[in-house]
Amino acid sequence: xVFVGDVDGHFVALDLQNGKLKWRQKFETGFISSAAVNExxxxxxxxxxxxxxxxxQDGSVKWEFTTNGEIDxxxxxxxxxxxxxxxxxxxxxLNADDGQVKWKYATGDQLRCSPTIVENxxxxxxxxxxxHVVNLDTGTALGEPYVLGNPTG
Length: 153
Known about the structure:
Layout: E1 2-5, E2 10-14, E3 21-26, E4 36-37, E5 41-45, E6 50-55, E7 61-66, E8 76-78, E9 81-85, E10 90-95, E11 101-106, E12 116-118, E13 121-125, E14 130-135, E15 140-141, E16 146-147
Antiparallel strand pairs: 1-2, 2-3, 4-5, 5-6, 6-7, 8-9, 9-10, 10-11, 12-13, 13-14, 14-15, 14-16
């Protein structure tokens, strides 16, 4: 199954074998980020800052969480968490079952990158021109951010 959203707020699931529509959802706002998929959920953020967990089976909304900025990048799963960055400058760790915030890591400037995971860490480059390394089990920084000198997207 291929999952894709568009800037007009449509989100669809297409059968990879034959290209036929499996399900379609329509939302008020559009999508520029890619979706994250696990065994049961499709998680995607929109340009108004709302993250939605949809049923992989039928597209029904399981939960929503709203940030204070646009979601430009794809979410990532880590253990029982959904990790997502926002232009509000934060990395959110949301419980995959209900969307409740487990922890939040703030950088102070926009984040437009997907969380990259190695073991129990994520690496975030943002508009603050620094590379942040965050412990995913605690939501805390590992050392001081590395100064890149220029913003990253």
